[in-house]
Each structure stands twice: as C-alpha cells, then as structure tokens.
Specification:
The complex is a heterodimer. Chain A contains 29 helices and 38 strands. Helix content of chain B is 4%, strand content 47%. Chain B is built from one helix and twelve strands; from the N terminus they run H-E-E-E-E-E-E-E-E-E-E-E-E. Chain B is globular. Classes of the chains: A alpha/beta, B mainly beta.
C-alpha cells in the first residue's frame, strides 16, 4: 500500500447502517482488523431499539431466554472497541454526492465508506384482511413480544408458510400453548431444501407432534370467524378457524434505501454487489440479506458473515473476495432432524439418486450423485442426520465416492464406508458458521493449541451452530496423534490413568495414601505430577490435614509451606478476607505484621492483601500473629477456592438489588479449603452493572430483582472466557445447591490443572449437559455430590492453625537442619519505600562490599 | 563411589544430623561452613530405594535460588530425581545432571551410620 493511500485509510469514517447479526459481524471484523490502524472511525446505526442479537436462536425467547441472553453485543463492548453507535436511528436519506446520510432524527452523518446491512423483512402476501389485529410476523424481538401478548388471548394459531422459518414459528406457537396449524401454498413443506419424499415424511412427523399441516392451500381472504376470532377462506372453498395468524412466507431484502438513492438493483429486489461486496457506488457496500450477488440472495447467516469479512478486509486494503456460499443446512425442527445438502432436488443434468426410507422409524435419506456415480451432488436427510457431515464433505471437496454410494446412507448392515479425515483437502471447510478450514485447524495446532478446547478458542470452529463438533474432534484428534501428542490421558509415566480414573480408584477402593495407590496401580517412585495430583484427590475425597505425615512429601512447595514461593525462594502470605470485607482493626493488624517483618505489601485482584518476602523461618511467627488477630489462611497457595469477589451490594449501593457482600462471605466460608483440579474464583455482583466482574469467574453470581443468575466456567487470565448462564432468578438455597454440585462434579471429572473454562470447552454436550446433570439430575448423582460436599465443609480446618500446634510440622520451617543462620542468598533492596529482591548484579555488588568490610584484613593479606 | 580418591583432597565424613531429622520421600537442607565459603546441601531420604539418602547442592542454577530441598522427589525412567520447585526441571540425584537443560548441580556422597546422617565434604 502506498503512503498516500495509507493516509486516506487513516482518515476513513466507516458508517454501518443496520445492526443485525451480519452488521454486527462486520463491526467486529473491522474493529479487529483496524487495531493496526486505530484512526478508522466506526459508527453503527440501528433502526431497532436494541443492539445486535441472535436471530437464529430467536425461538428460545419463548423457552426462557431473555433479550439479554440473545444479545450479541452491548453498549459496553462497543465502547471498549471504540465504536460509536445509535439505536432507534433509522437512516432515511443518502446524499451520495456529499457522502452524507440523514437519520430519522434529522442527524447528518458523514461517511467515507458506507455499509448497508439492512437485512430483510418478512413477506406478507396481499391477502385481504392481512392488516387486522393479531395478524403478525416473526422476525424481531419486538415481534415476539407481540406474539406473546396475542397468544395470551388466543387458543388457536396459524402459520402461513411451511418453509424453514414457518416451522420454527409453528414451534414457537406450540411452545406458547396454542393449537397450531401450518398452511403452505406448495404441495409440500420446506420445498426449497427438501424433495417431495422428504416433505411427505416431514409432514407426518410434524403432525405426530400435534401440529396440523395443510399443503396446497392458497388463502383467499381473512374474515371474522364463527368460533374463533378469524376464519381463513381458501381458494378451494375450505376454511380454517383461528385466533392468531403468523405470516412466514419468505423474506424480502430491505433495499428501499438503496433503491431510492439510485444504486443498481436486481429485477426482483436486492442491492447488486460485486465480489468485494461493493454496490454500483464504490464507496457503498452491501452485505447480508439485503445484498444480491450473482442474482442470488443468501438467506442464511454464514454467507452474510462471509460478506462482512470480505467487506471489512477490502476497506482495510486487503485482498478478499466473496465467491458464493454453500446453502446446505442441518437443523432440528420441533425435535425432527432435517438435513439438506447441495442439489437436493437432483436438478443437475444426468443426476442419479439413491433413496432409503424407513417408514416405521420415520427415517428418509436420499443422495444425489453425478451421472458417472463418482461425485456427490446433494442429499436430503429426515429423521436421522448422523451422516450429514461426511456427505457434505464429499460434496464440498468433490471427493471420489466409494464403489456403492448407497452404502453411505444404508443402515449399518455391514461395514459402512467412513470418510477418513485424511481424505479431506486442507481447504475443506469444517465449520461453515465461522468458515474454518481443515488447514486453519492444523495451523492452530502448529501454533501451540494442544487440546480440542484450545483449537475451538483459536479458530472459533464449532462455536456457532455446533453442527461440526464431531468432525472437528476427528480432525483435531487425528492431527494430535500424528504429531505424537497422545490423545490418551495418562497423567504421567507412573500411572496409566486419567485424573478422573484415579479419583474413582481412590474413592471406590478407599485408598488413603499415595504409597498404597502407587503399590496397587502405579510404578516407579512418582513425580511432581502424580504426587500433588494424588494429594489433591485425597484432600477432596477424605479432607485430611494436608501436612499429615503420609501426605507431606506429596505436596508442591506452596502447599508444604502454606505460602506462594517467589523467585528468590521466599514466600508470600495471604490471609483470607472473605468477600473483601475487612474491619479497620484487622487492617491495622495486617499492617503491623507487614511492618514488623518488613514485608512488601500489595493489594491483590481478589480483594485482599498480599505480603511478600517472608523467609521460611519467618512464616510460623507471622502466621501466629495473624491468627491471634483473627485471620485464617487464605489458601492462596492451593489449587482450591481462592476468593469470592463482591461489589458493595444493596446495603450501600443505590442500584443494588441483593446483598452481594453477605452472599460472597457466606460462599467463601462455605467452600474455603476445597481442593480442586485447579484454583477456583467466584464473583458476586449486586445488580446487572456487574461491578464484581462475576462473569469472568469460575462461578459468577449476579443479583436480579427475583434472586440470582448463576454463571459458570468463566475465566480472566490468559484466555478470557465469559461464564455461561446456567440458571436464572434462583433463590439462595437453590444457588448453593447448584454450586455444591457443580464444584464437586468439577473436582471429580476435571483434568489436572484444568480450569473450569477448559473443562467446559472439552465437555461433550457442553452447558446443556452440565445443566442436565445438575438441574435434572440425569446421572442420579446430585445426592452423592451434595453429601460429599457436606463432608468436606464439615471437616474444614485452618491449615496454618493446625500447623502451628504441631511441633513435627514446624520442623520444616527451619532453613537448615544443622544451623539457625538465615539463607545468605536472600537479599533485598529498597524501591518505592518497600523491599524487593535484589538482582544478581546488586547481590554481587552488595556481597563484595560486605566482604570488604568484614574481611578487609584477610583480603589485604591474600592480595 | 571411590571414596579414597576424594578423601585425598582433605575431605572427610561430616555428621550432619540424626536420621529422625530426615523426612521420608522429601528433603531437608544442611549448611556446611568451610573456611572461605558456605555451602547449602539438600539431603533427600528415599527409604524405598537402594541408596536411601542422596545429597546434592541446594542451589538451583536455573532459578538462581537456594530451593532444591523443597522440590518433589520421584523418578524419571530409572533416574531418581528432584523437580525444582521454581520451574520444575528435573535434576538427577546420583549424577547431578539436569534432564531438560545443559546444567549440573554438585553431588555429595551421603550415608547413614548408626542413626546419624553423614556427608563427605
């Protein structure tokens, strides 16, 4: 790029019209790309009252999700990205000559590059009566609110349109308790994606679920009903009574803005774009459902995301082009699995089909192959989509078919030919939501990803619809094993078991010491991996004092000395300050101890005080004074509960809705000392402002008007992860019950040094699985988990208090077995009025000075 | 171990402590004060191995601190090792060799005589 161009780029004002999923994705892409060039100014204008939300999962709004759950961004995120935004700011005028737009609020905004991401609107057929009350559409959260309100005063609902969205909408009406009908003009359901045979079976299955399907019906007029509010009169003179009418007869591009201001349009609508997503005005781009590429409108989110990426790159001067998209889809409609791949209708010249139908079990499968039977062209799957991934890969990558292609869809009577991931080329798309190829996955592993969770985090693969989970695992596992990363989970050379297996062995065989475990299940002398791991499991299962003789040699130095070893071999001291609440007297006591022992003092991120620079021999007297002042150990050294961070909550704060401090203190005291695969942090916020940053914690709790929302498996640190919303508006007791079970389940099943975030990322079934285990008790495990937690809570002891009363344990805190001198290599210097460890050069300088003074005579003699 | 060759250099067996001061499968530290220098020696007690006691320099040449006696002991293959508590490298207790980097620590002959622990220094 020339320097001239660079300057132009630096001054660019990029204005995005529309904040749907695609518009938001564009903002995200551009915000990431411009990190190298922060002078780009991004402005987003949304006609809706809220910022971008997930329309793909809209129907979940009726099964308990809130608008906040569906949100894809919020004001804070945009502020952090430095993105300007306005809601309720519909654009009404484009002045292309002066590069300006005008919003409905008469605000004039200048642009250098304008992005139209206006999306689409539901098509409502011109049926007389269509504008009456309770005749609704299904597109936005506001629409859903209208539907919900109307359903309250209705008994029967009709969806007009039997396509993909229509069936989604029918599902929503059923969820709202309405007797539901679907009316379709064509002779079958989902005519775009599936063939007549599949449509017939789909209809049967949906009717079996209690939804009446009426195909080949054209609605002539909507009249007053006899028993219900309205009556649909069809062209064949039949009628259908209903209280609520939902139109879902396809979408139309929201292109009137472009049309009014002279951009080139398609014959039947849509803003014409080139491969760089530019419209006929090179400074105006169009992306998503409003854009017409190659005379085609893409009504799926994945191609929209792709366009967003291309447009963002093009604006930044990078090479990128949009070259179409595969419209294959796999989804679950009202519990019925449906898959459609490529040329589902066998329209390609010479195409041949194989069909398998199992009416009793409700399964229909068809593949469409080329005339020479060597390539996959398309497929339809109803009732069972387990072959979707491999069929799709055959088609996308033009992989040669096996000799009898029908074997790909026949039930496994014999050997089913499996598509090895080796057969996939590097450019094979594994995750179509985020456009991740096999090559992307391999390069993420090249760059250091060493678990499936890492790969997901780096590439985003499988974090969209999740349809590619199994395939992703195959590709990653194959790659791991080909580079000698063993996928087996042996913890070390001494034990051929995973942490979870060892946990079960200890539990079932009632093993109480490492030596017993090594003798019965291991070999060699153990190591720094299996010893602390066993110590942690013994502590979780039996909760003995960790410095009890048989366990002493198993502990990491931090656990042995009940402090955190620093680089110079000294330790830090962190007493527990539950919930971050501390009295002035205790604060003074802390200060006095720090002053007396000349410790470097710092406030931690977990709302407590860390005292650094204590030598081993100083630890017992320091802790004696702290315990006398009412403190107890903070377990900052352990793989265990660290802190429960809290905001000040409803007691003081004007905005708080629950007493977050009291809850934080109660939780910290409940779980203190619990040993786990890794450290655990909590946060409790007293309102949705989230001042305690609870969503970045392993267990995050946010107060609501009605109780608490529980988030799980968040993480700050190296790979930040927002917690997943686990339960909504629960009371104190339920909250504690859930946390008991989640923590014990983690303690039981987590891998060594696996934080909850990675544990969740690697959990098959993810959040939904964890919810089923804990909330629905699907494994019949919660009684056991609660009993185990109760036992641990019941046997809590302050490890420092126990240590101080045990002369045997105190022996370890002597620096030398044969001398009471201190370690002469620990040297401090002053900085900002406190101590810090001396550097190597400072040590040398200081030592030679000491030698000069004390041994002056001797040195002179030698010289 | 060829004690004679070493004893030729004015070294001798020095009694450090009693066996009851040792900690099973773990380490303690001794301070050896000689004329011009102090030496810290980490002494490990592994009763399930042939040699029973092992003594090596306490200074971790990688972490540059006197900490090795606070490491976890165990085995890597056939080597009896201590893992540094700072950065977890393994040092072989019989050869002093670091298994991960090209570094060595000093090794001292050690023995148990009549409930006393002795080092050859």
């Amino acid at each position: 790029m020339s320097s001239n161009n660079q300057q132009l780029v630096e001054k660019q004002k990029v204005v995005v019209v529309g904040n749907g999923m695609v518009g938001h994705h564009f903002v995200e892409q551009l915000a990431q790309l411009r990190t190298a060039n922060p002078a780009i100014e991004i402005t987003v204008l949304s006609a809706e009252s809220r910022l971008a939300y997930d329309r793909v999962h809209l129907s979940e709004y009726f099964s308990g999700k809130t608008a906040a759950d569906l949100a894809m961004t919020d004001e804070k995120t945009y502020q952090e990205w430095g993105v300007k935004f306005q809601t309720d700011a519909k654009v009404i005028y484009i002045d292309r000559a002066n590069k300006q737009i005008v919003t409905k609020n008469d605000e004039v905004i200048e642009y250098d590059k304008l992005i139209l991401a206006t999306g689409s609107y539901p098509f409502v057929p011109p049926i007389p009566g269509k504008d009456r009350d309770h005749c609704l559409v299904y597109r936005t959260i506001d629409d859903l609110d209208d539907i919900q309100a109307s359903a309250k005063v209705s008994k029967v609902g009709v969806v007009i349109g039997g396509g993909l969205l229509g069936l989604e909408a029918a599902n929503a009406l059923t969820a709202l308790g309405l007797k539901t009908h679907v009316v379709e003009f064509a002779p079958q359901l989902m005519g775009v994606q599936i063939d007549a045979g599949g449509g017939r079976l789909l209809k049967e299955k949906i009717e079996a679920l209690g939804v009446q399907v009426h195909t080949s019906k054209a609605t002539r007029i909507i009249e007053d009903g006899d028993e219900c509010r309205y009556k649909l009169c069809f062209s064949d003179d039949t009628v259908l009574e209903t209280d609520l009418i939902l139109f879902s007869a396809g979408i139309r591009p929201y292109d009137n803005l472009a049309k009014s201001f002279g951009l080139e349009m398609g014959e039947r609508g849509g803003i014409v774009i080139n491969n760089q997503c530019q419209t006929s005005d090179e400074n105006i781009y169009a992306i998503g459902e409003c854009a017409l590429w190659n005379n085609f409108i893409f009504g799926l989110v994945a191609p929209g995301y792709n366009m967003a990426k291309v447009a963002a790159k093009h604006i930044m001067g990078e090479q990128a082009s949009f070259t179409g998209a595969d419209m294959s889809t796999k989804l679950k409609l009202m519990g019925v699995e449906v898959g459609s791949i490529g040329d589902a209708h066998a329209k390609t010249t010479g195409a041949l089909t194989y069909t398998y139908e199992n009416q009793p079990e409700g399964i229909y499968k068809k593949i469409v192959v080329s005339s020479d039977k060597t390539k996959m062209l398309g497929a339809v799957l109803i009732g069972d989509t387990s072959e979707y991934d491999s069929l799709l890969q055959y088609m996308l990558n033009a992989i040669d078919l096996p000799a009898s292609p029908e074997a790909l869809i026949l039930p496994s009577s014999g050997e089913k030919p499996t598509l090895g991931v080796d057969a996939l080329p590097d450019n094979a798309i594994i995750c179509s939501c985020h456009n991740v190829t096999k090559g992307d996955i391999i390069s993420s592993i090249d760059q250091g990803a060493c678990t499936l969770g890492d790969v997901k985090t780096c590439t985003k693969a499988s974090t969209g619809c999740g349809g590619c989970t199994a395939l992703l695992k195959n590709v990653a596992d194959k790659e791991f094993s080909s580079r000698g990363v063993e996928v087996k989970k042996d913890i070390c050379e001494h034990f051929a078991y995973s942490r979870r297996e060892i946990f079960d062995i200890v539990n079932v065989e009632k093993i109480k010491t490492f030596d017993e475990l090594l003798a019965s299940h291991g070999k060699g002398h153990g190591c720094e991996v299996c010893k602390p791991l066993t110590a942690s499991i013994l502590a979780s299962v039996w909760n003995d004092y960790i410095l009890k003789k048989p366990h002493l040699s198993l502990q990491d130095t931090n656990d042995t000395y009940l402090g955190n070893m620093q680089k110079d071999g000294t330790y830090s001291v962190v007493p527990r300050v539950a919930g971050g609440e501390i009295t002035p007297d205790k604060l003074i006591a802390l200060g006095q101890v720090a002053k007396k022992y000349k410790l470097y003092t710092k406030i931690t991120g977990g709302q407590r005080v860390d005292l650094f620079g204590a030598r081993v021999e100083e630890l017992p007297p320091i802790w004696q004074e702290l315990i006398d002042a009412g403190f107890e150990t903070g377990h900052a050294y352990g793989k265990s509960l660290r802190t429960v961070k809290s905001c000040v909550g409803s007691i003081w704060c004007r905005f708080g809705v629950q007493d977050s401090v009291a809850m934080a203190i109660a939780l910290e005291n409940r779980y203190k000392g619990l040993r786990a695969p890794h450290k655990i942090k909590f946060g409790v916020s007293g309102c949705t402002r989230e001042c305690a940053e609870a969503q970045s914690k392993d267990i995050g709790i946010i107060a609501t008007e009605k109780g608490w929302n529980l988030y799980v498996c968040g993480n700050g640190g190296m790979k930040p992860r927002h917690g997943d919303l686990f339960a909504i508006d629960i009371d104190d007791e339920t909250l504690v019950n859930y946390i008991d079970c989640i923590l014990m389940f983690y303690v039981r099943t987590g891998d060594r040094l696996q934080r909850t975030s990675v544990w969740m990322d690697n959990m098959e079934g993810g959040l939904a699985y964890l919810q089923s285990v804990i909330i629905e008790d699907s494994l019949k495990l919660t009684d056991y988990l609660q009993a185990q937690m109760a036992a641990i809570i019941g046997t809590y002891q302050c490890e420092w208090k126990t240590t101080l009363s045990d002369p045997e344990a105190l022996k370890r805190f002597k620096p030398f077995v044969n001398s009471s001198k201190p370690d002469s290599n620990i040297i401090f210097v002053q900085e900002r009025d406190q101590i810090r460890p001396a550097t190597t050069d400072e040590k040398i300088a200081q030592r030679s000075q000491t030698v000069k003074i004390t041994n002056a005579g001797k040195i002179a003699e030698e010289a | 171990m060829s004690e004679q060759t070493i004893s030729a250099k004015n070294k001798h067996w020095l009694t450090i402590c009693q066996t009851s001061d040792l900690i099973k499968d773990s380490g303690i530290c001794a301070l050896i004060e000689q004329e011009f220098e102090e030496k810290q020696v980490a002494i490990f007690h592994l009763p399930n191995t042939e040699k029973q006691v092992y003594a090596v320099g306490n200074y971790d040449p990688i972490g540059q601190a006197n900490v090795l006696y606070r490491g976890i002991v165990g085995s890597v293959g056939d080597d009896i090792v201590v893992s540094s508590p700072l950065y977890k490298q393994h040092f072989c207790l019989t050869t002093g060799k670091c298994l991960q980097e090209d570094k060595y620590i000093e090794v001292f002959p050690a023995r148990i005589i009549d409930d006393y622990v002795q080092l050859f220094v």
